[in-house]
Amino acid sequence: MSTDAAISEANTDAKRAEVQDLFSRTFQGIAPNAIPAVKDDRLYAPLVLRYHDIETGQLAGAALTCRSEVAVGMTMMQRLEYAPVLDRHSVLDLMAVAPAFRGRGIGSALVREMEDRLKERGVRIWFGNATRDLETARLREFYARHGFTVLPDGQPLPDLLGRSWVLPTAEQPAFFFYKQIKKS
Ligand SMILES: CC(C)(COP(=O)(O)OP(=O)(O)OC[C@H]1O[C@@H](n2cnc3c(N)ncnc32)[C@H](O)[C@@H]1OP(=O)(O)O)[C@@H](O)C(=O)NCCC(=O)NCCS
C-alpha cells in the first residue's frame, strides 16, 4: 500500500479524540481541546490528517493545520480585517509521530498530503512555529527540507498576505517558519 493510502482525515469528533490522545502523549501540557470540534469547523477550517500503520492498524502519526488564532479572534469579534485572507492562510499547529514510528518518512508524508489538500482549498500561505521545548535543531532541518523558509531564532514572523499573524502577548517561540503554496 502506498503512503497516501495510509493517510485519512479525522473528520469526526471520535477520530479527533484519538489524535488528541497522540498529541497529549507527545506534547507536555497541551490543552485537552487542542483540536477544534467538528461543530466549529466553519470557524477554524481545520485539516486533521492521520497516518495508520498498515501492519498493525495503529495510529502512527497525525497533524493539525487550521486558521490562526488572530484570524479566528477577529472573526468572532465580527471584525472584517482578516475576512479576505481567511481562506488564504493556514497554520501548521501540531504534528506528531509516535516514537516507535519516527524516521520512516511518516511526518514527511503528512506534510506533503496537507500541502496538497491546502492547495486544493486555495490556501496560499502556510506557516507555524516551533516551541522551545522541542528538538528545534532537528525541526529546523525538517521544515527546511520541506521548502519552508525557517527564520533564525527569535526573528519575528513577517507580515504575510499583508497581515500580522502573531498576537503581541503570545509567548515567543524558538523560531517561525512559512512557505508560499503555489497554484499548480
Ligand atoms: C517531527 C516529527 C513529526 C517528524 O516525523 P518523522 O516521521 O520522524 O519524520 P520523517 O521520517 O519524515 O523525517 C525525519 C526527520 O524528522 C526530524 N525528526 C525526527 N525525529 C524528530 C524529533 N524527535 N524531534 C524533532 N524532529 C525530528 C528530523 O529532521 C529527521 O531527519 P534526520 O533523521 O535526518 O534528523 C516527529 O519526529 C515528532 O513527532 N517529533 C516530536 C513532536 C514534534 O516536534 N512535532 C513538530 C512540532 S508540532
Name the descriptors.
seven-stranded mixed sheet, 6 helices, 184 residues, Aminopeptidase, alpha+beta, single chain
Per DSSP E runs of 2 or more residues, the count of β-strands stands at 7
Instruction: Specify the overall morphology.
Output: globular
Report Rg. Answer: 16 Å
- The named CATH superfamily: Gcn5-related N-acetyltransferase (GNAT)
> What are the secondary-structure elements, in order, as H or E?
HEHHEEHEHEHEE
Mean pLDDT level: 95
Spatial strand arrangement across the major sheet: 1-2-3-4-5-7-6
**Number of structural domains:** 1
The structure class reads alpha+beta
Proportion of residues in extended strands: 15-25%
Q: State the end-to-end distance.
A: 26 Å
* Proportion in helices: 25-40%
Which small compounds were modeled alongside the protein? coenzyme A
Number of DSSP helical runs? 6
CATH topology, by name, is Aminopeptidase
CATH class group: Alpha Beta
Major sheet size, sense and barrel closure: 7 strands, mixed
* CATH architectural designation: 3-Layer(aba) Sandwich
Low-confidence stretches: none
Protein name: GNAT family N-acetyltransferase
Organism: Streptomyces physcomitrii
Keywords: Acyltransferase, Transferase
InterPro entries: Acyl_CoA_acyltransferase, Bact_Acetyltransf, GNAT_dom
